[in-house]
Design goal:
This protein has 302 residues and is an alpha/beta fold. The chain has helices spanning 28-36, 54-57, 125-133, 148-153, 155-162, 172-179, 184-194, 233-248, 253-270, 277-281, 284-297, and strands at 3-6, 10-16, 19-26, 42-48, 65-66, 70-72, 78-84, 91-97, 117-120, 141-144, 167-171, 198-202, 208-212, 215-219. The strands form 2 sheets. Strands 1, 4, 5, 6, 9, 10, 11, 12, 13 and 14 form a 10-stranded mixed sheet that branches. It has a 4-stranded mixed sheet with strand order 3-2-7-8. Strand 12 (198-202) and strand 13 form a beta hairpin. The longest helix has 18 residues, at 253-270. The chain is globular and about 60 Å long. The structure holds adenosine monophosphate (AMP). Adenosine monophosphate (AMP) is lined by residues 8, 10, 12, 26-28, 80, 96, 122-123, 147, 149, 231-235. Adenosine monophosphate binds at residues 8, 10, 12, 26-28, 80, 96, 122-123, 147, 149, 231-235.
């Protein structure tokens, strides 16, 4: 089933203890679309400036990614820069330049409007809502990601958008900030009152936790000896998660649990190299091998 994503397509400046890259292709929707395209067809909605070259666009070629909804405008592409701490667990944002996103009015191609699975990647909550409103029927699953930048600057818009989504997928500090609650289970109860019926908390090297009315399900992060750059791990997680669900067309508990594993698998590949490099070279067989490895990692008898 078709999967729609709206979010940033960006240039990123990255600094980690493993190196520094001044400007590389990134953006939440880019990581999401590439990760999800290993599982299903993806329709991409976003905007780039005239500095986005045909060579940059190659990241979407030869994959199941439709870019009719990727608008080109005069001006500069969204730019973000961040620096990671020694242990890669903390990150500070150095620069956020919205550029062409500041004036973006998304218009969905007709063929995108029947999407059954929708992912509102991290971008202005008003744009996320605009896109959701153009989808004809209520999707089977609408999921949303956001970050401190939008929680602080556009809280009202975000609350409004949250009322219309099923799954909120954010990291632990964003969960605490949005709910004003330190304990993640108590935070989930607050968030359910805002609209979503499922909360997925991404916890970096500690894995991810899904909370809904049936209870809690946790997956670890795949243990890696040398993670290099966590940028995009959350979006790749979301791509694996939503891509898997769209590929099976289901949203029952068993499918959601498997989706958590595929999410964690995709996030783990992304952190192995800088930017999108690892996803560029990734093969489907490697994804399935790592998912099997996951099953072994978490198996036990009582
Ligand atoms: P993640 O590491 O999964 O949180 O996502 C990193 C990606 O999010 C980078 O490639 C950035 O270009 C993008 N990003 C960072 N800040 C923002 C923002 N305020 N709005 C939209 N995208 C952003």
């Amino acid at each position: 089933m078709s999967l729609l994503v709206v979010g940033s397509v960006a240039f990123d400046g990255l600094e980690s203890p493993f190196g520094k890259v001044e400007r590389t292709l990134g953006g939440a929707a880019t990581y999401f679309a590439v990760a999800a395209s290993f599982f299903t067809h993806v329709n991409l909605v976003g905007i780039v400036g005239d500095d986005f070259t045909p060579e940059d666009a190659l990241i979407f070629r030869g994959r199941r990614i439709d870019t009719e909804g990727l608008e080109r405008a005069a001006g500069k592409t969204f730019f973000w820069a961040g620096r990671y701490s020694e242990n890669l667990n903390e990150r500070v944002t150095l620069t956020t330049e919205l550029n062409v996103f500041a004036e973006f009015k998304p218009r969905l191609p007709e063929k995108y409007r029947t999407s059954k699975f929708v992912f509102l990647a991290n971008i202005a909550p008003g744009l996320q809502r605009d896109v959701l409103q153009q989808v004809h029927k209520r999707p089977k699953i609408a999921a949303l990601d956001t970050m401190n930048y939008w929680i602080e600057r556009s809280n009202g818009e975000l609350r409004e958008t949250l009322r219309q989504v099923d799954i909120l997928m954010i990291n632990d500090s964003e969960t605490r900030q949005l709910s004003n609650e330190h304990n993640l289970l108590r935070a989930a109860k607050h968030i359910f009152k805002m609209g979503p019926s499922t909360l997925i908390v991404k916890r970096g090297e500690y894995g991810a936790m899904m909370v809904d009315s049936r209870g809690v399900f946790c997956v670890p992060a795949f243990p890696l000896e040398e993670p290099h750059d966590p940028t995009g791990a959350g979006d790749s997680f979301a791509g694996g998660f939503m891509g898997y669900l769209a590929s099976v067309g289901e949203k029952n508990d068993a499918a959601l649990r498997r989706a958590m594993v595929y999410g964690s698998v995709m996030g783990s590949f992304t952190v192995e190299q800088f930017g999108l490099e690892r996803l560029r070279s990734l093969r489907r067989a490697e994804i399935h091998a790592r998912a099997r490895h996951f099953a072994k990692l978490t198996q036990f008898k009582l």
